[in-house]
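Example: RidA family protein.
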Amino acid sequence: MTITLVNPGGLPEIDAYRQVSIATGSRLVFVAGQVAWDADGVTVGAGDLAAQVEQCYLNIGTALAGIGASFEHVAKLTVHVVDWNPARMPLLMEGIARAAAKLGVTPVPPATLLGVAALDVPDHLVEVEAIAVLD
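Written out as structure tokens, the predicted fold is:
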């Protein structure tokens, strides 16, 4: 396996992700920020943060599958959420859980969550980018 996820002692253990990702592969893959578009470029889940998060993660899964990879190869995620506040965390986690169930994975690589004012399209509530490592 090219990615080992760990929670080193002295740092808090967080259910949603691991604190450190150790990558031993030789090819880096940078997946562009994925928004809640389906294959036809239609926004999925207008106004529904959980549905949009789910679609973003599914899109990352599709992008990775297209190069023979999967979420198991993801070393780092960055999540940008419009008008973020902590009360939205359950919706974020719901979307991740639904995507994980569909993808058959537990996507827990280190992640950074950023609140942003807006994204490229007014209907988009979230954008997720990924860095993966392949052998």
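The domain at 3-134 is CATH 3.30.1330.40 (60s Ribosomal Protein L30; Chain: A;).
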